[in-house]
Design brief:
The complex is a heterodimer of chains A (156) and B (166). By secondary structure, chain A is of the alpha/beta class. Chain A is 48% helix and 17% strand. Chain A has one domain: Rossmann fold (3-Layer(aba) Sandwich), CATH 3.40.50. The chains are: A alpha/beta (156), B alpha+beta (166). The structure holds FE2/S2 (inorganic) cluster (FES).
């Protein structure tokens, strides 16, 4: 489900079925890395939308966690933990973080929930058809990872 | 006499202005009606069917096909791609929507190792028979929705609005 008024009614009626939050992690930079930050952000948004579509009955897609590229790892992890607490106290058993930012790879084990780190594919240069195909292929790899996360009864 | 004359002149002016104004208003409003309202009416009027697959490619095992069409919202046209599960039941084409009737996740054919001959929803393990009937004891309470279809020259055309089959 999406973070939208239209979906939130359904969410509130079927909360016990929606036990997973999806949060994109997006780094923002206006310096040299600007272009790649924008491309990564775009790619991750598309992937998140696709995941929402595939799993909308069990997954609530939250607004992304956006941070300046030079934010310290420690601050970020604190922030992520605060988020996990909020979700846990509202009955969410699973969090899926999705990002193309490689720095999360290093702290994967400190991250509550599942980290889906996806290498950024230059999807912005593809035509619609190829774009959709690339997304579908990506989803085929994501699906088993999400299923595995769900097999652990208590993820958080 | 003088008075009457004045009034009628004023009337003339009023009518003249109304006339021109009305004409101008029509000039502004008509295109708005044409561009704004008309497309919505048209979209309703013609429920175009979309060419999705060749009949020869169909088997009795459901396969996923892409259905691409343009959805006219009146103010903008959106490119839509949807997946449809299509198979043959005897001579009959069956086209099912992949949207789980429980809470809307996407179902796949045969992905549950214990039930290879059924549609499976990964979210809460909802299951459906080949013809879309929901399996009792799993969360969905109605069958998968079905697309209207027509076969023309060996091609399968589908309507764009799947409807409940109860
Ligand atoms: S959304 Fe398919 S079983 Fe719940």
């Amino acid at each position: 489900m999406q973070w939208q008024t239209a979906d939130i009614d359904t969410y509130q009626q079927s909360q016990s079925y929606v036990d997973t939050a999806l949060i994109p992690l997006l780094s923002v930079s206006l310096g040299e890395e600007m272009k790649s930050a924008v491309a990564m952000g775009e790619y991750i948004s598309l992937i998140s939308m696709e995941m929402e579509k595939q799993f909308r009955g069990r997954v609530l897609q939250l607004p992304p966690l956006v941070y300046p590229q030079n934010e310290s790892q420690e601050t970020l992890l604190q922030h992520v933990d605060a988020w996990a607490d909020e979700l846990k106290s509202n009955g969410k058993n699973h969090i899926i973080w999705v990002t193309a930012d490689p720095s999360w790879k290093k702290v994967e084990n400190d991250l509550p929930g599942l980290l889906l780190w996806l290498p950024h594919l230059p999807i912005e240069h593809m035509d619609k058809k190829l774009q959709q195909k690339t997304l579908n292929d990506q989803m085929k790899e994501i699906l088993p990872q999400v299923m595995k996360e769900w097999q652990q009864e208590k993820g958080l | 006499m003088e008075k009457d004359h004045n009034v009628s002149r004023r009337q003339f002016l009023t009518y003249a202005l109304l006339g021109t104004g009305g004409f101008m208003a029509a000039g502004v409003i008509m295109p708005m009606v044409r561009f704004g309202v008309d497309p919505i009416l048209q979209a309703d009027a013609e429920d175009d069917m979309v060419d999705v697959a060749a009949v020869d490619d169909l088997t009795d095992v459901p396969q996923a096909f892409d259905m691409e069409y343009e959805q006219d919202h009146g103010w903008h046209v959106e490119q839509v791609t949807e997946t449809v599960w299509i198979h043959m039941e005897g001579d009959e084409v069956v086209a099912l929507s992949p949207t789980c009737t429980h809470l809307g996740c996407t179902v796949n054919w045969g992905t549950d190792p214990d039930n290879p001959e059924q549609f499976f929803c990964p979210c809460h393990f909802g299951r459906f028979e080949r013809d879309g009937t929901n399996v009792q004891g799993t969360p969905p309470t109605e069958p998968l929705h079905r697309y209207e279809h027509e076969v023309r020259d060996g091609r399968v055309f589908l309507g764009t609005n799947p409807s409940p089959q109860i």
